[in-house]
Design goal:
Elements: E1 5-11, E2 18-24, H1 25-32, H2 37-40, H3 46-54, H4 58-65
Antiparallel strand pairs: 1-2
Length: about 80
């Protein structure tokens, strides 16, 4: 197999939801060896990466921190 993959079952430490995340082994190992998750595992959603990093699912993340802001949205206050 040219591009072997790994599937990890990850359980949210807050609510107990389990998610299976599948990623190429080379990318997973790059992350484990210090590469930023968003660079090493760019093919995953930000929610999948966060689940691997902190074992926090999207629902719990939103409950704790609110909806993510659009990275291109600017909030300007007119003085």
């Amino acid at each position: 197999m040219d591009n072997p993959i790994i599937s990890k079952n990850v359980t949210c430490q807050h609510c107990g939801t389990t998610q299976t995340i599948t990623v190429p082994i080379a990318n997973f190992l790059a992350w484990e060896n210090g590469e930023f998750a968003q660079d090493a595992m760019y093919m995953l959603t930000s929610g999948e990466r966060e689940m691997l990093i902190s074992q926090t699912c999207d629902d719990c993340w939103i409950e704790f921190f609110g909806e993510p802001e659009d990275e291109f949205q600017e909030n300007w206050v007119n003085n």
